[in-house]
Structures are given as C-alpha cells and as structure tokens.
Specification:
The complex is a heterodimer.
Chain A (H helix, E strand, L loop, with lengths): L1 H31 L6 H13 L2 H24 L7 H39 L2 H7 L4 H38 L5 H10 L3 H27 L4 H31 L1
Chain B lengths: L3 E12 L2 E12 L3 E5 L6 H8 L7 E6 L2 E2 L5 H8 L2 E4 L11 H5 L1 H6 L4 H14 L15 H12 L6 E5 L7 H18 L2 E5 L3 H7 L2 E6 L2 E7 L9 H8 L18
Parallel strand pairs in B: 3-8, 3-9, 6-7, 7-8
Antiparallel strand pairs in B: 1-2, 1-4, 4-5, 9-10
The chains are: A mainly alpha, B alpha/beta.
C-alpha cells in the first residue's frame, strides 16, 4: 500500500511539474514577441552565453574529433577499412556528436549559470523587485537568455562541426597517416544538405531546452543558498536528459 | 475631506490549506503613514504582496483609486506599479548593477530621457536620501543602511503615490534606523506619499504613523489612530504594545530549560 501511495505521489508531482513547466514555456514565448526589446540585455547575454562558452565547446569538439578518429582507425584497421574513417567521422560528428556534446557542455556551463543567477535573484527578492518596478521578470530575465542561448547554440554547432572535423583531420593525417589531401572531401562525401540543416536545428532546439530549463529552475528556487545549489544541479541534469530525449525524437523525425 | 487611495475588501489567502490572510478589509488614505504590525510570520508581508499583485488572493477585492485592480492583466500591473513602490526588507538592489544603474532603472524602463538628465535625476534622488558620489559602487560595497537608502531612492524615482516599506529598520543599528525613519517621514511630508509600513517595532511605529493596524492569525484585529493607542481598550493592541506574555495573542512558551 505504501509503495502504491509513493508511486501515486510521484506521478502527482511529475504531472504538476510538467504542467508548471508548460505554463512557463507559454509565458516565455508570449513575452518573447512583446515590446520593449531590450537590446542591451541581448548583447550582454550574447557575450556571456555565446562568446564566453565558445572556447569550451570548440575544445570539446576538437578533442571529440581527435579521439573518434583514433577509435575508428584502430577498429577498422583490423578489417583493412581505414579508408572509411573520414566518412564515418563526418557522419557521426555532424549528425550526432557535435550538436549533442555542444548541448551537454552548454547545459553544464550556461544552464547552471542561468539557474544560479536567477535563483540567487529569487531568494534575495530581486525578482519581486523587478515586478514592483513595473518590469515583467520573465520578459526581462528569460527572454534574452532564451533567444541568445538558442542563437549561440546554432552558431556554436556550426563551428563545432568544423573544428571537430579538423581535429579528426589533424590526427588522421599527421598521426595515423591517412591521406591528408582527400580527408576532408571523404569526410563530407556522404553528407547531404539535410545533415547540416539537421545538425544546426538540433543545436537551436537544445539551446531552447537549456535556457527554458535553466530559467524555470531559477524562478522556482526555494530555500536560500542550499535551494540555489539544488536547483542548479537539477537544471543541469534535467537539461541533459531532455537534450538526449529530444535528440532521439529529432532523429526519428528527420531520418 | 481625506481621500481614499487604496481599499482592500474581504481579502483571503491560503497556503496549502493554511489560512494566512483571513477576510481582511481596510482603506488607506492619501498622504497618511500607516503601520501594519504583528508578530513575525502572521502574514504581514503576504498582505502587502497581495496588494501589489505579487501573489493572487483566493478571494476578495483590491481597489486603487476606486478602480478594481484585483484581476489586472500583466500589462495593467506594469502601469499600476509605476504608481506604487516598495522598499524590501533587504533592499533587493540588483547586485549585478551599480548604484547609478539601480537608481536609474525605473527611468530607463519607463521614461525617455537623455543620459545627462538621467545623471542629474539620479544625483538628486541620492541626495534626497542623504547620499552622494556613490554612483559607481556596487550594492555589495555598501553598508546595510546605505543599501536601504539607495533602494529608497530607486523606489521614489517615478514619484509613486503609495510606497510600501517591508520592515524598513529591521537589522539596522539604532542611529541608521533613525535615519531611515526620518527619511520615511520627510518623504511622506514632502511628496505627499501614502506610506504603508510593515513592522513589529512598536516604538518607531507609534512615533511616525498616523494609524496602526494589528494582524493576528490572518485577521486584522485592530485599526487605531496612533494618538488614541495609549487609551485603547483593544486587548490585542494592549498586549502587543506592552509586550505582555498573557492575553488573546497566543505565545509559544512550552519549552523548558533542563535543570542541572
């Protein structure tokens, strides 16, 4: 009986959270298209979210390209299939690895920062102060973060594709002695426009997920500094799970 | 004749089944200083947050200048709040913004003025609260009293008609507390602002308020003119003002020290 009760309580909490999150998403989208558009906030967030995160995302992508080509090389060498390494790298990196890993890195860096910042504002009454000063907190805090994270992710994924590919090229050509002249063209030969489009679309959607989860968790912080820490952790974990879930759904839809 | 500026009718609010505000009705008048008193946790701050639309009441109505604002839309609240201000207990300054950016926040959001006009207005507002040349500092670099004064300057930037003060002197030393109290009084007189103070500091409340209200168990158990408090027969007021342990206000006195 206790177990049934616990399961019942779990689903009640789960559905309430889903409902609250859905309302928050609607509210954020509603305010996204309302005036005033605070240019200064967008620029600030773009610098914080896009430019400051770029090096971490690109370093991650470069290493993924480098590691992946080594793994492919030694696995396929046994079957004398080294020549398919660049093509496999291109497909895996652009279709899957670059957007997903960039998303996970962003969730850890940007999602956590968003929740911590908004959560701290919540526990120190700064969010209520915004309302009192005649400013909608969702429009002031969530909208710039949503728009800039989504756009930043779009740009970061395009660059991560490029950097990851060249990371693989560098190791493949200079360490594993694969043909440097044909490496890039081989890596790209099986890819079609849809792959590049899907890769950037994934980045864009992951960016939306990271920002929405980060803001939502921040706005719902309870319990002082301990609550901020807990919400930050939950924000990263939730965003990561949702990114992987969304990736699965997008793969089913796109391919 | 005294003009009514704000009226609350039969306001109720529950949290998870627990009644925090229970059928409260009261009117506030233009230019008065009203202090809402009560023990910690009786719902004073919740009451203020309900009036300001930060929380939604379960039932009841709120009128601002005879207009029902209870179910106002987000857009309408933005306009209403330009005419109401609030000084939070901790100041609630934006910690990532400088003093200048904090004080000019309302001006940036709601007015179209040049940077020179803005600088001039910020300096004037800071001077009104007794501060000077601190525009470039961040809130963390200020003392508690200075933070409250900067927050007050931010609150009055658009000349609100009503200002709520949530525990304005709690946590301050007696001298700084007197400075804040004097400022509240001066602002009230100079700008004809209706001041609604939430406090449990009896001495200060009686010294600056025109009227006081006492909240207990979610109910407004007394509303008195300050000048009549001394001869007031209300047992709640009598107990609270005199700090008596016995009376209609229940006190938690069940704990006992263990004898050695």
């Amino acid at each position: 009986m206790i177990i049934v009760n616990l399961i019942y309580q779990f689903f009640i909490v789960l559905f309430r959270e889903i409902g609250n999150f859905s309302l928050f998403i609607l509210e954020t989208f509603k305010w996204t298209f309302r005036r005033p558009f605070r240019k200064k906030l967008f620029v600030e967030q773009m610098e914080k979210i896009g430019i400051e995160t770029l090096p971490v995302a690109l370093i991650t992508s470069a290493f993924i390209g480098m590691i992946f080509i080594v793994q492919l090389y030694y696995s396929l060498k046994e079957f004398s299939l080294e020549s398919v390494c660049p093509g496999s790298l291109g497909l895996s990196l652009i279709r899957e690895l670059a957007p997903v890993l960039a998303g996970l890195v962003m969730a850890g860096r940007v999602g956590a920062a968003i929740t911590a910042e908004i959560g701290t504002m919540k526990v120190t009454d700064q969010i209520d102060a915004l309302s009192i000063l005649g400013v909608n907190p969702i429009q002031y805090l969530s909208v710039p973060r949503l728009v800039t994270t989504a756009l930043a992710m779009l740009g970061i994924v395009i660059l991560a594709n490029f950097v990851g590919l060249y990371g693989g090229y560098f190791v493949g050509s200079f360490v594993l002695n694969l043909n440097p002249r044909s490496f890039i063209s081989d890596a790209l030969k099986d890819l079609v426009m849809k792959d590049f489009f899907a890769s950037t679309l994934k980045g864009f959607i992951f960016g939306i997920i990271i920002a929405l989860v980060g803001c939502w968790k921040g706005f719902n912080v309870r319990g002082g500094s301990k609550g901020v820490g807990k919400a930050t952790m939950e924000s990263v974990v939730t965003a990561m799970i949702l990114i992987l879930g969304a990736d699965y759904v997008l793969n089913l839809v796109i391919w | 004749m005294v003009e009514e500026i704000l009226r609350v009718e039969n306001l109720c609010k529950k949290f998870e089944g627990m009644t925090v505000i229970d059928n409260v009705s009261i009117s506030f008048y233009r230019g008065e200083i009203f202090t809402l008193m009560g023990q910690s946790g009786v719902g004073k701050s919740v009451f203020v947050r309900l009036i300001l639309g930060l929380l939604s009441p379960d039932s009841g109505e709120i009128y601002f200048k005879d207009k029902n604002i209870t179910n106002s839309s987000d857009r309408e609240w933005i306009e209403i709040r330009k005419k109401m201000g609030m000084l939070f207990q901790n100041g609630a300054l934006f910690d990532s913004l400088t003093v200048f950016e904090n004080v000019s926040f309302l001006l940036d959001e709601h007015l179209k003025i040049t940077i020179d006009e803005k600088k001039e207005r910020v300096a004037k507002l800071l001077l009104e609260v007794g501060l000077k040349d601190i525009e470039s500092l961040y809130p963390a670099e200020l003392s508690g009293g200075m933070q409250k004064r900067v927050a007050l300057a931010r609150t009055i930037a658009l000349n609100p008609e009503v200002v709520f003060y949530d525990e304005p002197i709690t946590g301050l030393d007696p001298i700084t507390a007197s400075v804040i109290t004097k400022l509240v009084n001066e602002l009230n007189k100079a700008k004809k602002i209706t001041s609604i103070i939430v406090s449990h500091d009896v001495k200060t409340s009686l010294s600056i308020s025109d009227r006081i209200g006492l909240l207990y168990n979610g109910k407004l158990v007394a509303i008195e003119d300050t000048k009549d408090v001394a001869k007031c027969k209300n047992p709640y007021v009598d107990q609270f003002i005199k700090g008596k342990l016995t009376g209609p206000i229940k006190t938690v006195m069940e704990g006992k020290w263990e004898e050695k």
